[in-house]
Design goal:
With about 300 residues, the chain is α/β, with parallel strands linked by helices. The protein folds into 2 domains: about 150 residues, D-Maltodextrin-Binding Protein, domain 2 (3-Layer(aba) Sandwich); about 120 residues, Periplasmic binding protein-like II (D-Maltodextrin-Binding Protein, domain 2, 3-Layer(aba) Sandwich), CATH 3.40.190.10. The protein is built from 11 helices and 12 strands. Strand 1, helix 2 and strand 2 form a beta-alpha-beta unit. The radius of gyration is 21 Å and the shape is globular. The N and C termini lie far apart (about 50 Å). It holds the Pfam family Phosphonate-bd. InterPro entries: PhnD (IPR005770), Phosphnate-bd (IPR017797). Keywords: Signal.
Length: about 300
């Protein structure tokens, strides 16, 4: 009887291992920081390239209305790959350090591996500095956004000399970076926090980030906004891969992305939202300051 049970256990283990290696579909999560149709269009070339590079039968794109949908997908194993901000990775890490590996991040047009929170207001509002915003309404992009929520909540209180909720009359969320800027333009917020490279031409929305994407799509004229505040440099967010994938497939995925800036620069720049130059390897230690900040400010 014991021998039969052992044989059955071995058979089940081998069967499970074989199933784990037989992955026919890869799933890419999109976090809703940009218009859904644009995000899908900018990711389609990656989906096509991954299918060819890995040999899987299909690569599916899953847009989420917010960051948390992708975070939960990566934690639960229903999403395999995603590029998100460092705070989103920190949220995953604090819940399950083994759920994903942060494998790569991108370098910008100036060679840096970081970007900035950019607080913007309408150009005709008369708002030019943080002092002009006292008692007014501030919009954040998303509770899980690094630049659109976490970093302002870490950096602003020291500059303001008081907690954010005491300085501003009201705060709220815009539902992603693009929607937030549109909400500022519509007067729903007096100012809002988005992100960008902070280098390059102002008229182009800098060289990368949300403002750059909006200008490129014709959704924003930079003459209509002013930059009120920028944060310290933030580490670029990671490309994350689920640890539920077989090791051999994970290696193929990583190799594809490492080569992407060389094999298809236009696809790489569309996927990373700017005139970026390359991918560099990262690990959890690259994001330790963000993990600590998220644990302190949000708790998870």
């Amino acid at each position: 009887m014991i021998r039969k049970l052992l044989l059955a256990t071995v058979a089940l283990t081998l069967s499970t291992a074989a199933f784990a290696q037989d992955v026919s579909v890869l799933r890419i999560g999109l976090d809703g920081s940009e218009n859904e149709a644009d995000q899908i269009r900018n990711t389609q070339c990656v989906a096509d390239g991954l299918k060819a590079a890995t040999g899987v039968a299909e690569v599916q794109i899953f847009p989420s209305p917010d960051y948390n949908g992708v975070i939960q997908g990566l934690l639960g194993g229903t999403i395999d790959i995603a590029s998100m901000g460092a705070s989103s990775y920190a949220s995953i890490y604090l819940k399950d350090p083994e759920a994903v590996d942060p494998i790569l991040t991108y370098t910008g047009s100036d060679g840096s591996s970081g970007y900035y929170t950019l607080m913007v207001a309408r150009a005709d509002s008369g708002i030019k500095t943080l002092a002009d915003l006292k008692g007014k309404k501030l919009g954040f992009a998303d509770p899980d956004s690094t630049s659109g929520y976490l970093i302002p909540n870490v950096a602003l209180p020291a500059e303001l000399g008081m907690p954010i909720d005491q300085y501003f009359a009201e705060t709220g969320f815009g539902g992603g970076h693009e929607n937030l800027v549109l909400a500022v333009l519509d007067g729903q917020f007096d100012a809002g926090t988005t992100f960008g490279s902070g280098v390059g031409e102002w008229a182009e929305g800098y060289s990368g980030g949300n403002l750059h994407q909006m200008v490129a799509k014709g959704n924003l004229d930079m003459d209509d906004i002013v930059e009120v505040w920028r944060s310290p440099l933030i580490p670029n967010g990671p490309l994350m891969v689920s640890n539920k994938l077989p090791a051999e497939l994970k290696t193929k995925v990583e190799d594809y992305f490492k080569q992407l800036p060389k094999t298809d620069l236009a696809c790489f720049q569309a996927y990373t939202q700017g005139a970026n130059t390359d991918y560099i390897e990262v690990d959890p230690s690259f994001y330790q300051t963000i993990i600590d900040a998220r644990k302190s400010v949000i708790g998870g």
